[in-house]
Amino acid sequence: MAKMVHIFLKPGKEAAIKRFHPWIFSGAILRIEGNPNEGDIVTVFSSRKEFLAHGHFFTGSIAVKLFSFQEAVFNEEFWKIKLREAFSLRKKLGLTDTPLTNAYRLVFSEGDGLPGLIIDYYNGVAVIQTHSYGMHRLTPVFVEALREIYSDRLKAVYDKSSETLKPQHPRSVINHTVSNIQDPASSIQDKYLFGSPQTGEILETGHRFRVNWERGQKTGFFLDQRSNRMFAQFYAKGKKVLNLFCYSGAYSVYSLKGGAILVNSIDSSKQAIEWTEENIRINGFDPKSHPSSVMDAKKYLTESQEKFDMIILDPPAFAKSHTVTNNALHAYIYINAAAIKKLNSGGILFTFSCSQAISSEMFTSAIMSAALETGRNIRILHRLSQGSDHPVSIYHPEGEYLKGLILGVD
Which residues of 12-24 are buried (b: 16+ CB within 10 A; e: fewer)? Predict the structure, then answer.
């Protein structure tokens, strides 16, 4: 029988939970009854012993991530229902039955009421990435649910959690010392949980992409930019385009499809450039219209003398936590100012931040500082975010991690 762990909050700290925010910080905890391990299911109460929610226990500054605000039995069917609901949403979004797209995010953590769980679907292969040991324990249930949802269409399930589940260490949570925390991630390895190794090719709005979920970043492909890439295809006609931090070249493919006369792709990773060139090839574009270089993006902006009509600037997260936001903002200012200086008059800049710790307001302010540094007339044409298969709970605005602007530069 599973042990019962009850967490009681300090007076007044229940307000956020009653507004359905899914995180409880360690500083909000009054006391813990029981001796939880990392990933255990806990029940949360107010200081007046009023039931609030259930969640998974953590040993960091976020002590609990909540997945149910109602009393429930957490059997296999509970979790399968959650996955079926996530699939139903993607079906309503028109992602599950279109001949032009066969890859999408099936589960987006808090946005689907499953904090700590990511599942991406790539044309018959589901890639699971867990960010909590509580969710990782449930992977056999998720595999079974995926097989029920997709039936014969499911070829394989790959678990890619070794990077996102770093080894945990015992820590003190408020006044309760958690002394028996296990080291759950120490033996976790990426592996196939169902089916055999697969090589992946997907369609995204009719474009072909090779996806390597075993060696690629995150789950292998940045599905969150799907709708934003359509803007690049729309604006690229007749333009000379620079795609910085290109990864596997999705923005380059869309730009060439839109009629760009040339697309220059830059990434510091040799593997990324090889993937980019392969994706250019399988979409039938002339390699002469696509020069590419293995080079640091900042170095390229500093040393290259070329000018462009459109630049895509989609760097990795500069701020992994709130403690480094100031340094991150300076980095955004620097790189955006350098990119603006490389644009011809009438040019267009696509600029993004995927740092959750950087708010939309902070990012816009950083871009304004970059604009002031250049002295050019710049206007916001569009504000962008992640795709609809990365839904954001209205009660958890932190889920809107991707911020983007399309700027017109005179």
Answer: ebbebbeeebbbb
The residues of the chain scoring below 50 in pLDDT are: 1, 168-185
pLDDT at 321: 61
Per residue in 150-161, pLDDT (tens digit) is 999 999 999 999
Helix axes 76-92, 139-150, angle to 10 degrees: 50
Instruction: Name the nearest CA neighbour of 280 among 225, 241, 313.
Output: 241
The whole-angstrom separation of Cα 328 and Cα 96 is 37
- Within 8 A by CB and 6+ apart from 371, the residues are 336, 337, 340, 378, 407
Angle at 211 between CA 208 and CA 216, to 5 degrees: 145
Topology (CATH) of 6-68: 2.30.130
The fold for domain 76-164+184-200 equals Transcription Regulator spoIIAA (3.30.750)
- As given in the structure block, the two tokens for residue 73 are 């039995």
What are residue 85's phi and psi, to 5 degrees?
-65, -40
Helix axes 250-257, 270-282, angle to 10 degrees: 30
Residue 134 exposure: Cα atoms within 13 Å on the Cβ side:
24
Tokens representing residue 238 in the block: 């007749």
- Kindly tell me the sign of the dihedral angle through the C-alpha atoms of 376, 380, 386, 392: positive
